[in-house]
Design brief:
Helix content: over 70%
Number of domains: 1
Structural class: mainly alpha
Number of helices: 5
Shape: rod-shaped
Number of strands: 0
Radius of gyration: 44 Å
């Protein structure tokens, strides 16, 4: 085999390697793979929230919004107080017992009324505590919903974007290095040909 045929074969190998590196950079299938990854990231299931927690919160909020003196318990207690006061006044038959007994009956009605107000306020405090519990549950569910529907998919897309950028840079660098190596080999072959 002559030196001329060896140089020609070497030049062919160098040219073939350069074309291979260029084709590897241009036709690597990375666009299709990137689209598939993005489609997968965008198809993340969404969390709709917990209906029982939401219903509990709405119910607790509605119950807390009731005026304590408008509650059924308070209204019933006031009716009983008025009924007992009327019954007590009707039992006072003569003038002397009426004068002495009216003060006691009114005092008992006032005490019962104050007690009903205290009980209504206590009931309102219990509703407030229930609302606090429901609010904490609703807040935790909202945070989970945000984490699942917004933050996790964002972090996945960010991670994929970082991986894609790194892969693109690696492919670019490998292609540039391959082309540089090809040019270096071509220069070496040309120098051998010049010496021969």
């Amino acid at each position: 085999m002559s030196d001329t045929s060896a140089i020609t074969a070497g030049e062919g190998a160098v040219a073939g390697g350069g074309l291979f590196n260029l084709a590897n950079v241009l036709f690597s299938g990375r666009k299709k793979a990137q689209r598939e990854l993005e489609d997968t990231a965008n198809a993340t299931p969404k969390y709709a929230g917990s209906n029982p927690i939401s219903n509990y919160y709405q119910t607790a909020l509605a119950r807390y919004g009731v005026n304590p003196t408008s509650s059924a318990m308070y209204t019933k207690q006031q009716q009983d107080i008025n009924k007992n006061t009327a019954t007590g006044l009707n039992t006072l038959a003569d003038k002397r017992s009426a004068i002495a007994g009216v003060g006691n009956i009114v005092q008992a009605a006032d005490n019962s009324s104050l007690n009903a107000n205290v009980q209504a306020e206590n009931q309102q405090n219990q509703r407030f505590n229930q609302l606090g519990t429901a609010t904490n549950l609703q807040n935790a569910d909202d945070r989970f919903k945000f984490q699942t529907n917004t933050l996790d998919p964002y972090q996945l897309r960010l991670s994929l974007a970082s991986l894609k950028a790194k892969a693109a840079n690696d492919r670019f660098n490998a292609g540039v290095k391959g082309i540089g190596d090809t040019m270096n080999n071509a220069a070496m072959l040309a120098s051998k040909a010049a010496m021969a």
